[in-house]
Amino acid sequence: MPQEIEITDNQVRLAEKHLLPQGKSFDEERINFIKDLSTHDLHAVPGSGKTTALLAKLIALEQHLPFADRSGVLVISHTNAAVDEIKQKIGHICPRLFAYPNFIGTIQGFVDAFLAVPYYKSVYRRRPVRIDDEIYDENHFPDYKLSAYLNNRSDGKKLLYKYRLGKDGKLTLALENKPFVFPETSSTYQKILAIKKGLRESGFLCFDDAYILAQEYLEKFPGIINILRKRFGFVFIDEMQDMDKHQYDLLETLFGNAAEVAYQRIGDKNQAIFNSESEMLDIWEERNVKELNGSHRLHPATACIVESLALSPITVVGNKTNPDGSVVDIKPVMLVYENNTASEVISCFSDEIKRLVDVGKIKLASDNVHRAVAWTAAKPGDKANMIKLNHYYSSFSRDHIKLKINYPCLEAYLYFHQEDAGKLASIRKSVLNGILRVLRLEEIVNPETGRSFTKRSLVDWIKEQHDDFYRDFKLQLYQITALNVEQKKKEALNAFVKLATEVVSKLGKTIKKSKAFIAEKYLPVAFAADPEQKNNCFVKNGIHIEVATVHAVKGQTHTSTLYMESFYQINVGGKGQYESSRVADQLQGISLAATEHEYIKQSLKMTYVGFSRATHLLGFAIHKSRYDKFYAGKPNLDRWKIIKVNQS
């Protein structure tokens, strides 16, 4: 760790100038964190501005670059969106921070760049073609006999796609070190093993492969640990609670208890809803814990409810105020519905928002965000009495939750893109992804490299090899984009197919293997008859309420949030199958018993995340049967305004 570095008051004030509204300053709680360059863990409540405080620390460290010992700063977050936010907010302020020897990126990007790719190159003498789960799955080509066998098994897809080539050269289930279900001598085992080896050798890796290779690298060449510790004197992990166990363990191997590294892990254990293998509460061994307790998002009436849901106890102080400095005074609402009124819950919530707008407690501003969320959405096979997200909003579609690289047909690429100010660029990107999918299905690679095309390499290749076609290519891309914006989907699709066919032709091929992909029709089931009710959005009173899962809104800030109970797993300890009943004791001030079932803990984490999104209005939808049993007449019910949901 670079010695004798001290963050000064002037550097804090410089960060305030760039990061905070005019006239605002960091409070003592945040200044103490910004100035602290020791190894420690920071536990921060929702809306505490922890990422802003981290950015302030980075702005201050920029003033000390380059460090005398030539080390750098490593900043790791969990998602590309979080990394993009860092670059957007301070990239222009801290140019040295985004150059060698520093690294700011995702945990996957870090593992790829510093461990998996270098080791792969040392073994195979070339770079991997792609590290991506979707494209990895796409390149599985079982023979007819194996394909027919797997198609007749309920776990066929799992056997083919979820097993990995372990560091011992054997098949293992993901990163769990669970052996294959069939003996190594079986034909099925040998065929799938051959597919995995072929993928590895041809350079198509999944994300798990990167960690398998990284671990093998560290075991064979442990000296790389000291090299990375000398490279990075300051290591900051944002959203630590979202790391999986294998990511946590890898970071600990590299930087845990390293005297020469200032290692700071920043997050909120109570928001660990992405960890599938085990609980971050159990994984995260704390070191020199500091806290940020003040929330600029939550007002007092919401903060006390959120605090009661914290699995890892922490004080939550609601500091949210109105623009005039007054305290936000809005009581959370409990919406009590019955079997025949579940579909009216969101409408009822919209009416309450409108009432608050009319009395001046919520501004009807264009930048206000309103969400209705639930833990689970319906799946095939669900029973009719399992209340889930679709009971509240029947046209909900998971397809709109997350943009992907691959979709089931070419036409789908015209529907999935970012709905923002950069819509044209986003549609163009999606169209290029569709063309790349056609090329991969046709098994067409870049003739110059022997690898699959990327968007950039395809455009560059066309420009260099077919300059006469390049201008027309760009024009057709624009025309497809413009037609799509104008909702002329049929014309856009025809132009899309034409362009994809021409690109394939320029590469000396014709459309064969991708015919079905191109011909298949996309049925946008999420688009309701009312054009305003599309993209999982409910509209009433001029108020747009987007409908989503809790996972989809984690990290977001809303003006109002409606949390709708949903069926999840089995009846646990007499506390039912809904989080509303499972967290009832904690909402009434009863501490969680250490022996409580795992589903109780998961329910607490899910409600903690969902309840902590809103700056103004929090809503909680509960069926009358559970309200009567677990809430009516119980302590702390006066924290809520009770509204009965009626049929419209």
Give the SSE map:
Layout: H1 9-19, H2 28-35, E1 40-44, H3 50-62, E2 72-77, H4 80-90, E3 103-106, H5 107-124, E4 130-131, H6 133-138, H7 144-151, H8 156-161, E5 163-165, E6 171-173, H9 187-202, E7 204-205, H10 207-220, H11 223-231, E8 232-237, H12 245-255, E9 262-267, H13 280-283, E10 289-292, E11 294-295, H14 300-308, E12 317-318, E13 333-337, H15 345-358, E14 370-374, H16 389-392, H17 423-441, H18 455-465, H19 467-485, H20 489-506, H21 515-519, E15 537-540, E16 543-549, H22 550-553, E17 558-564, H23 579-582, H24 584-587, H25 598-611, E18 614-623, H26 624-630, E19 641-644
Parallel strand pairs: 1-9, 1-10, 2-3, 2-8, 4-7, 8-9, 11-12, 13-18, 13-19, 14-16, 14-17, 17-18
Antiparallel strand pairs: 5-6, 15-16
What is the CATH superfamily of the largest domain?
Answer: P-loop containing nucleotide triphosphate hydrolases
Give the second-level CATH assignment, the architecture of the largest domain: 3-Layer(aba) Sandwich
List the strand order in the largest sheet.
Answer: 15-16-14-17-18-13-19
Provide the CATH topology of the largest domain: Rossmann fold
Query: Tell me about the biggest sheet?
Result: 7 strands, mixed
Q: Calculate Rg over CA atoms.
A: 27 Å
**Whole-Å distance between the termini?**
64 Å
Q: What is the C-level CATH assignment of the largest domain?
A: Alpha Beta
Uncertain segments: 525-534
Helix- and strand-based class? alpha/beta
Q: Globular, elongated, flat, extended or rod-shaped: what is the shape?
A: globular
Number of domains: 4
- The number of helical runs is 26
Helix content estimate: 40-55%
Number of strands: 19
